[in-house]
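User: Sequence recovery, please. Input:
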């Protein structure tokens, strides 16, 4: 799922976010992201198979709970780098008993937003 990295209004639906947060592996991945990490680093920290980790990272990214960037390496091999992209997940129930979800996001500097936009452009070209 490609989303506009400059928009803060691209929140997924309630079922997707709650379903993702209900997954123990997904919660463990979020716990391990006290700083941005690559998938290789997360495999070691989370003790889950690589294929499972990638499925969970996709799910977390599609739910907009993680943000994927690119780590540029000197040897030319680049790696995805993941970081938590929320500060709060708020589930609300209105007077009509309809549920809604709001995801509070950390503030980003202009250079971070530009880097994320460039990363999304790279994904579209592939």
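Assistant: Recovered sequence (126 residues):
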């Amino acid at each position: 799922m490609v989303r506009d990295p400059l928009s803060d209004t691209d929140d997924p639906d309630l079922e997707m976010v709650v379903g993702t947060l209900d997954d123990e592996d997904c919660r463990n991945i979020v716990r391990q992201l006290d700083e941005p990490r690559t998938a290789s680093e997360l495999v070691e920290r989370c003790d889950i198979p690589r294929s499972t980790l990638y499925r969970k990272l996709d799910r977390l990214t599609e739910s907009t709970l993680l943000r994927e960037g690119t780590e540029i390496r000197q040897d030319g091999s680049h790696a995805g780098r993941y970081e938590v992209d929320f500060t709060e997940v708020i589930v609300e129930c209105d007077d009509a008993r309809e549920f809604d979800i709001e995801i509070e996001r950390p503030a980003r500097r202009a250079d971070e937003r530009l880097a994320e936009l460039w990363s999304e452009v790279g994904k579209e070209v592939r």
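The first helix runs from residue 14 to 21.
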